[in-house]
Design brief:
2 strands, two-stranded antiparallel ribbon, disordered C terminus, single chain, about 425 residues, Growth Hormone, Chain: A, about 75% helix
Length: about 425
């Protein structure tokens, strides 16, 4: 835009990435805070489960709407207002007296999760097609905010006395965390508004809503959404599920389990810029082939239950003789190694999926990116209960990864079918010529 500094895109990328990291930490803070909250309020298992899920739900269902708003009014306005709004329920969480109040404000805090679709639309509008993959990958690395509360939350809770400071003006215990986040959100909103260019790119300005929603009719958009369930929805689900898995399956203490979970979260977040660069360099489709292929292999191994094959080998001396072969027991170190590989695939794959969107829908990133983000995030909401039901119904904890294997394999097959169909359409005369002399 005329009169805009050439550094403006990088300024927007920096501010939006920092803001998204903070918003993501706020969105998933109940993964840690719910434990001391359960003790204070005496929550049942059902109440505990809803507390950890309600923010994830609200951070998912409005992503399409916020993507449209960013396209229509500009990312600067929408992102700043969303950060400013989230500060209010974050502060109220630190003051709640009843479980009912807590659920209301936890739901409203969940609005933070919708910042992703706003940031995607905002950055897409400012970066050229050749640089969008890397830019969106850098922005998406804000997913690392999922680990912020896990790393610093317990220390802050222990550091501040339960009575707080200044006669309770600064609350103590677990309440200090949402209080601190509310202050940081106010500072972030001010920095975003004052630090970003006042003239914004608004690709959806003046376009009717029907026109903005038209791309959602295409099957391709829903295919991208399934991909995002694999690389993002499953990431969110495993971020809250893995601590329990480590504790219940391997008998690892909770503190160590949380630390091991961050070994999954870091590559699943911080490799996103690398995934964007790969997508710019080699193409999103080729990157997704490698992502789905590697994830399918790892998930197949993770889905294998502990045990061994027993062969029936009767003889005259012992008609009922058996022999055990191929004994397999997953130890925590091999498990963690495979989980890290899955996290690497998710981190790279998240960027590749969003490289597709501005490539196919350059004027509709808000709508398409919003829907893809919505369905992917909803996967993070529905997968943990599905894991729980499968585990309880079979008694086999590895069903968690069997579910993820099925979803990933289905996505891989759909991607491959699309590629084969494209090649057939482009070169129908080679359909039956498998060998060339």
């Amino acid at each position: 835009m005329k009169g805009t500094s050439p550094r403006a895109p990088h300024t927007i990328l920096t501010l939006s990435t920092i803001g998204f990291t903070l918003m993501f930490a706020v969105w998933l803070m109940f993964g840690v805070l719910a434990i001391p909250i359960r003790k204070e309020f005496g929550l049942s298992e059902a109440q505990f489960g809803w507390l950890t899920a309600i923010a994830i739900l609200n951070g998912s269902i409005w992503r399409l709407l916020f993507g449209l708003l960013a396209d229509r009014f500009g990312g600067r306005k929408v992102f700043t207002l969303l950060v400013l709004f989230t500060a209010i329920p974050a502060w109220m969480v630190s003051r709640v007296k009843t479980y009912e109040e807590l659920m209301v404000y936890a739901f409203l805090v969940g609005m933070a999760g919708n910042s992703f679709s706003v940031g995607i639309a905002w950055n897409s509008a400012w970066f050229s097609r050749e640089r969008q993959g890397l830019a969106l990958g850098v922005f998406g690395a804000g997913n690392v905010g999922a680990s912020v509360t896990k790393l610093i939350g317990p220390a802050m809770i222990a550091m501040v006395p339960a009575a707080g400071f200044f006669g309770g003006l600064v609350p103590g215990g677990w309440r200090f965390v949402p209080f601190l986040y509310s202050i940081l959100l106010l500072v972030m909103a001010a920095a975003m508004w004052l630090g970003s260019p006042s003239h914004d790119h608004v690709p959806g300005k003046g376009r009717p809503l029907r026109d903005l929603l038209r791309p959602l009719r295409e099957v391709r958009v829903w295919r991208f959404s399934l991909y995002y369930v694999v690389v993002f929805g499953a990431y969110v689900a495993l971020s809250v599920w893995l601590p329990r898995y480590y504790v219940d399956v391997f008998g690892i203490p909770l503190a160590q389990a949380a630390l091991l979970t961050t070994l999954f979260i870091f590559p699943a977040s911080l490799l996103r810029p690398l995934g964007g660069w790969f997508s710019d360099r080699f193409g999103a489709r080729r990157v997704m082939y490698w992502v789905f292929g590697s994830m399918t292999i790892c998930l197949l191994l993770l889905a294998a239950p502990n045990g061994h094959i027993v062969l029936y080998t009767p003889s005259k001396a012992d008609p009922s003789a058996t022999i055990s072969i191929l004994r397999f027991v997953m130890n925590p170190w091999l498990f963690t190694f495979l989980i890290i590989l899955v996290g690497c695939g998710m981190g790279i794959g998240k960027a590749a999926v969003y490289k597709y969107i501005p490539e196919y829908f350059p004027k509709d990133v808000g709508a398409v990116g919003g829907l893809v983000g919505l369905l992917g995030a909803l996967g993070g909401f529905f997968l943990p209960p599905l894991f729980s039901y499968a585990w309880a119904g079979t008694g086999v904890p590895q069903t968690t990864f069997a579910i993820l294997f099925v979803i990933t394999a289905a996505s891989f097959l759909w991607l491959h079918w699309v590629v084969v169909h494209m090649l057939h359409t482009a070169t129908p005369h080679l359909e039956h010529k498998f060998e060339q002399q």
